[in-house]
Every structure is written in C-alpha cells, then in structure tokens.
Specification:
Blueprint: H1 2-27, H2 37-46, H3 48-68, E1 69-75, H4 83-92, E2 95-100, E3 104-109, H5 112-117, E4 123-129, E5 132-138, H6 139-160
Antiparallel strand pairs: 1-5, 2-3, 3-4, 4-5
Helix pairs in contact: 1-3, 4-6
Amino acid sequence: MRYVIRSIKYLLLLSLLLVALMWLSMLSYPEEANLELLPFIKGYMLSERGRWFIVGVVVLAALYPRFGFMRSKVEECDLERDAIRIDNAMHASGYRLIEDGKDVKVYRAEGIIHRLSLMFEDSIEVRRVEGGVEFVGIRRSVARIVFRLRTYLHNSRFEQE
C-alpha cells in the first residue's frame, strides 16, 4: 500500500510541475496573451504527443518508489557504540530523532520546507543488522547520510590512535 501512495504522490507532483511548465510556456509568447491555461492544456493532452507524454509520466510515477528509495548498509558500525556519530550525521543532514528503540531508530526531517521537498516521505530508519547498521529511506538523503557517517567512522579510527 505504501508503494501505491508514494506513486500517487509522485504522479501529483509531476502533474503540478507539468501545469507550471505549460503556464510558463504560455507566458513566453506575449503575442498570444489571450490564451487560457485550461484550453491550452486540454489541446496539448488530446494530441498524440500529449497522450504519449501522459503515458510516460504515469510509468515514471509508477516506477518511482523502486528507484527513489534505497537500503544501504554501513559495515563495522554499531547502533549503540556509534550512536553519537549516527546522530551527528543525521543532524548534519537536517534530521532529528523521533523514535529510539533497541534495534531501530527513526529520524524525520526538521522543518516544513525540508519535509515538503521530500513529499513528506522524510522518515529514515536506522536498523541493527548483522555486521553493521542499515539505513532505509529516500535515496538522496540516505546516500548523503551514509557517506557522511562513513567519513565520521573513518575519522574515528584516527582518534583512537
């Protein structure tokens, strides 16, 4: 069910972006200032190119949860021992702790603008797994956080020497 909701959110966002681009396109032709947005969109969508564009947007929205979210494992990291480093990596990326369990920590984006830019799919779970921890969430955020955490862990090796 979560997959379908994510696809619908992405479809709505792409549709809104399409309407905004068409509106900006209309503004670029001042000689045709009497055009209205809805008839312009209707005319475009009824053309063959418009129908193929709709198919492409629907397919992209349907596939978005497949490539828009990821799991990433960080080796040699412990949820308890490296809790401060994990919290620092999350905080530096704009996330705050909302749920602290024994084997799972859940973080959420700080601020309404950050949450809105992530379409309210701003929850990142950090789970204890065999040999490390696993991050689950939206791809761009997880990739940044994992990179930052690996840097923190690498630097911590020099602290001990």
